[in-house]
C-alpha cells in the first residue's frame, strides 16, 4: 500500500467514525426526550385523573407536604362572607315626611271630590281612581263617598296619626309587612270597626321602607370579612393515604394530588413542548462544547460508552427517584461525572454532570433543590479527584462530594416548615452515603469499562509504569538498551505533554512500552548490541533486515495483549513509527544488483500515523532521543539543529497530519525537547583514574585523569530504530 492509499484509508475511516458519532449523538437526544415524556417510575409520579373520576388504586403522599388549600380557604371566606348581614342606612325622615304629605294630599283630593255637588257618583269614582299616590278599589271608594263628614274626618285624622307613628321608626324592606300587620293594633278602639278597617286599608298603602339597603356598605363589610380569614393549610405526611381505591375524586382531593404533582392532564401537548425545549437547549449546549473542545477527540467506542452510561443513569434516576424523600439524595448520580472524568477527562465529566443533574429531576417536585445538589456535589467530587492516581483520592472525593451537599440540602429544607431535626440529619447522612457510593461505583466502572473502550485509567497507568511491572522487568532483563532508551523517551515526551495540555501520565506509560516488541529479538537492535560483536543484519538481505526491524511493532502489540495492558498502549506501539520506511535498508536494497525488484511496501511500517497528541509526542521524542544518542550533540546549537531536523522531517512527510497538534504546540514541544536534551548531554567533569599513597600513608590524587566512557555505536539510525 502506498503512502497516498494509506492516507486515503485513514481519512475515510475518520469520516466513517464521525458519522457514527453523530448518529450516537442524535439517538441519545431522542432517547433523552422519550425518558422525559414517558412515565417509567416505579412509584408512579403522576396519574391521569380529573374531578369526578373513581380511583383504581390507593394513592399515597410521596413526601411530607404542607400547602395552602385554595378550596378550603375559599370556603372559609365564603362562610365569613355569608355571616355578614345586609347593611342598611339610618332611617331617612324625608321619606316619612313625604309619605305623610302624600297621605294628606290624597285625603284633600278625595275631600274635594266628595264636596263636588255637580258630579255624579260614577264621575266621583272615576276621579278618585285617578289618585297618584294610591290605588283604591271601587268598594272602598263607595264606602268613602258614603261616609258622613264626621266619620270622614275621623278617617283622615286617625290615618294620619297612625302613619306618622309607624313611619317614625326605622323600617327596612324586610320589616314592611310586619309593620303593616301591626297597624290594626294602633287604631283607637273607640272607632267603629268598619271605619277602622277603612283606616287600615288606606294607611297600609303608604307604609314604605325608610331605612334603605346599602349595597356598597354591604360589599365592603363582606370584603373585610373575607380579608380577615387566614389561609387554610393542609398537611400530608409521607405515605399518608390521599385517596383510597374506589373513592371519587373531589375538588379537595384533586387539589392535594395536584399540589404533590401526582396528576397530569390527558392533553400532554404543553408537557411535551416543555420537555422538547429543555432537551433541545441542552443538546445545543453539548454540541457547542464538543465543537469547541479540541483538546480531546473521542473514539467511537468511547463515544458509545459515554452515551450508554449517560442514558443508563438518566433511566435509573427517572425510574427510582420520583416520589421519594431520601432516595433522591442517596442516589449516586455523581458517579456518572466521576466515571467519565476518570475515563475521558474532567472537562467531559463536568459537562455530563451538569446535563444529567438538570434532566434527571426534571418536572419533579423540588427539582431545583435536586438539580443544585447534584451539580454542586458532582463537580466538587470531580475537582477533588483530579487525576485519581490513588485510592485515597477517590475516598476523599467521595467525602467531599457528600459533605458539600449537606449545606445545599439544609438551604432548601429550612424553607420547609414540616422538616424536623431528625429529617435534616437523615438527609445529611444520605448525602454522605451518596458520595461514598458514587466513588465505589466509579472505581468499579473505570476498571470494567476502560478495557471496552481501550482507555487507560490513571490508576492503571500508575500500576504499569512501576519498575516492578512484569513487562517492564522482562524488557529490562532481555533488552536493557531498549529499556534505557524508553526511559529517556518517556522523560522527553512527559515534559512536553505538560506544556501542550496532553496527558503526561498516558504519554509516559506509552513511551515506556512503545518498543516493547524489541525484547523478543533484542540483538537485532543497535542499542542492545555490544560494541565489537557481530551485527546480525550483515548476514541477511536488506528486505529481511527491514522485516526483522519492522517486526518489533506487531511483536510489541502481542506482548501488550499478553500482559493484559490497557489497549490504549497499543496505539503507541503501532503509531510511534507511523508509516515511515526503514531508510537504511531501503537504500541498501536500492543500491543492490536486484534493485528493480525492490518494493517499498516491504520497508514500510504498518502504521497508522499518530492519531492523538500523545502518540505524536512519543514519535517525535523517540526519533529525537535516537538521533541524540547517535550524534552526541556537543552544544546547544547542535541540539537545536538536531531537534529542528526531526520536526521538519515529520512536518513535511505527513506523519503528523492526523494528530491534533497546532503550530504553537509544535513550538512548545521543540523547546521542551531542547531543554531536556541540553540537561542530558551537558559536559561532564573528568574524574581521577587512580589514587597513590603519600609517604605518610594518606591517599593522593594522580595528575592523570580518567577519560570519558567508551563511545556509543557509530551507527544509530533513528528512523530505522
TrEMBL record:
SUPFAM superfamilies: HD-domain/PDEase-like. The keyword Transmembrane helix applies. The keyword Protease does not apply. It comes from the Bacteria. Residues 695-708 have a biased composition (Polar residues). The chain crosses the membrane at residues 23-42, 272-291, 303-321, 333-360, 367-385, 391-412, 424-449. Residues 711-721 have a biased composition (Acidic residues). Residues 482-627 form the HD domain. Keywords: Membrane, Transmembrane, Transmembrane helix. Residues 684-721 are annotated as: Disordered. InterPro entries: HD/PDEase_dom, HD_domain, HDIG_dom, Metal-dep_PHydrolase_7TM_extra, Metal-dep_PHydrolase_7TM_intra, PgpH_phosphodiesterase. It holds the Pfam family HD. This is Protein containing HDIG domain. It comes from Flexilinea flocculi. The lineage of its organism: Bacteria, Bacillati, Chloroflexota, Anaerolineae, Anaerolineales.
